[in-house]
């Protein structure tokens, strides 16, 4: 009997290790300003919570005077309450408060990242924990873009951000012990350019304190550039040199690994939008073609050179549109009206990125942002949330027997054998001269 119990314990342990290793996150980024759009507004009622392990609710700010939490948008209480109440039905769902955003504001981070003012950090930590517990959030995402960046957060640098992260984690642990509640989750977004990583972060000083690192692996190429490029390329093109050869997900992941980041904490960002360009020559429409500048804005995005996924689907239905696939970057691009070019994500490119995540034992993926996906299924003929479903379906697919195929299907792009991360570290990330 004892022998049988021992064998059963071993089997249970073995299975727990397998299933733990295969437990990926698929995070859904919700931006509260999408509720206010005059066209196709998006609300909490339209979220498919089955497709998310985490809801990243954006965006809060830090009041620099009181060091308390405030919101960018007014009148957010109704949808926020619905999202928080979704945990009644979806027991394992985590709701994460996001502080900060992607534009040029500092969102109050400067008031809590002065390394010479640890009292401000302590006060903010106390206020943040009280707020998260009061409204039943499960953690916080620090979306600080980027510590010490000129014109965004120039006053204090990576040292202050490292100290803030350590103090927050210490507070989260202490509070969990006292309250006897599950410890709050601590996440941070991370820059996705290899030449920015050491400039903005002390990886060795923050990695043990962060539960997740959300890599902003989109906008690796922008429409303001004068050449067409796929914005979230998985791998580099053979003819790319210098810094441009690192504007891809594989190189970014490899760089973080070489700096000491843990693969199982890295979450890859997937854009639910594309970057568009106006071609200089309509006959030259390959990736890398010369462009006059950004393409026309979308009705939803209202930003030159940016189109949501469902707006891209509308463009793809035009009679003169042509869709192509880039074998190097592993991503699609669309040419329409003869002179406009869009690099974007579709279900196939998402699938390739999920294979990459699994082959490298990364933590999972997040979609920025779910309101830009075809959330009602009326534009792409792929059902509701095609991109989000592609993420979830591949990350939850039982592939134990095909693991070798998954690894080989990725590694042949970069090396002949071995784990992908080893190949990437040796081949994809190479030192280069500064531009």
UniProtKB/TrEMBL annotation:
A GO molecular-function descriptor: chitinase activity
Pfam families the UniProt entry points to: Glyco_hydro_18
Keywords for the protein's UniProt record, in alphabetical order: Disulfide bond
Extent of the signal sequence: none
Residue ranges of every copy of the GH18 domain listed in the record: 24-398
Top-rank lineage group of the source organism: Eukaryota
Entry-linked InterPro entries: Chitinase_II/V-like_cat (IPR011583), Chitinase_insertion_sf (IPR029070), GH (IPR017853), Glyco_hydro18_cat (IPR001223), Glycosyl_Hydrlase_18 (IPR050314)
An example Gene Ontology biological process: chitin catabolic process
GO CC terms of this entry: extracellular region
Protein name: GH18 domain-containing protein
């Amino acid at each position: 009997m004892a022998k049988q119990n021992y064998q059963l314990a071993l089997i249970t342990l073995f299975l727990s290790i397998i299933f733990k290793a295969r437990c990926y996150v698929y995070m859904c980024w919700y931006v509260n300003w999408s509720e206010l759009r005059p066209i196709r507004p998006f609300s909490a009622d339209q979220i498919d919570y089955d497709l998310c392990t985490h809801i990243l609710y954006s965006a809060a700010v830090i009041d620099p005077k009181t060091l308390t939490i405030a919101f960018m948008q007014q009148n957010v209480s109704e949808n926020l309450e619905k999202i928080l109440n979704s945990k009644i039905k979806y027991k394992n769902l985590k709701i994460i408060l996001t502080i900060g955003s992607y534009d040029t504001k500092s969102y109050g981070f400067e008031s809590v990242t002065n390394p010479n003012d640890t009292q401000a950090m302590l006060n903010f930590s106390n206020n943040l924990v009280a707020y998260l517990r009061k409204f039943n959030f499960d953690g916080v995402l620090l979306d600080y873009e980027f510590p010490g960046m000129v014109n965004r957060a120039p006053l204090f640098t990576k040292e202050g951000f490292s100290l803030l992260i350590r103090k927050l984690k210490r507070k989260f642990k202490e509070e969990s012990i006292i309250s006897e509640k599950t410890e709050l989750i601590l996440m941070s977004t991370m820059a996705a350019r290899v030449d920015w990583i050491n400039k903005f972060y002390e990886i060795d000083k923050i990695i043990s304190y962060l539960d997740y690192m959300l890599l902003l692996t989109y906008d690796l190429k922008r429409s303001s550039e004068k050449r067409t490029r796929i914005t979230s390329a998985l791998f580099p093109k053979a003819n790319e040199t210098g810094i441009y050869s690192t504007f891809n997900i594989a190189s970014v992941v490899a760089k973080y690994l070489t700096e000491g980041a843990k693969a199982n904490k890295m979450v890859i960002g997937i854009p639910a939008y594309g970057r568009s360009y106006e071609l200089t020559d309509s006959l030259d429409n390959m990736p890398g073609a010369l462009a006059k500048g950004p393409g026309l804005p979308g009705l939803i995005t209202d930003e030159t050179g940016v189109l949501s996924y469902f707006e891209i689907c509308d463009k793809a239905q035009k009679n003169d549109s042509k869709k192509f696939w880039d074998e190097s970057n592993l991503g699609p691009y669309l040419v329409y009206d003869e002179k406009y070019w869009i690099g974007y994500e579709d279900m196939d490119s998402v699938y390739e990125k999920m294979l990459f995540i699994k082959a490298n034992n990364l933590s999972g993926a997040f979609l920025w942002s779910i309101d830009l996906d075809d959330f009602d299924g009326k534009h792409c003929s792929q059902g509701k949330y095609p991109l989000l479903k592609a993420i979830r379906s591949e990350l939850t697919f039982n592939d134990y027997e095909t693991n070798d195929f998954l690894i080989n299907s990725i590694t042949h792009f970069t090396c002949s054998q071995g784990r992908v991360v080893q190949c990437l570290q040796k081949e994809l990330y190479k030192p280069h001269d500064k531009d």
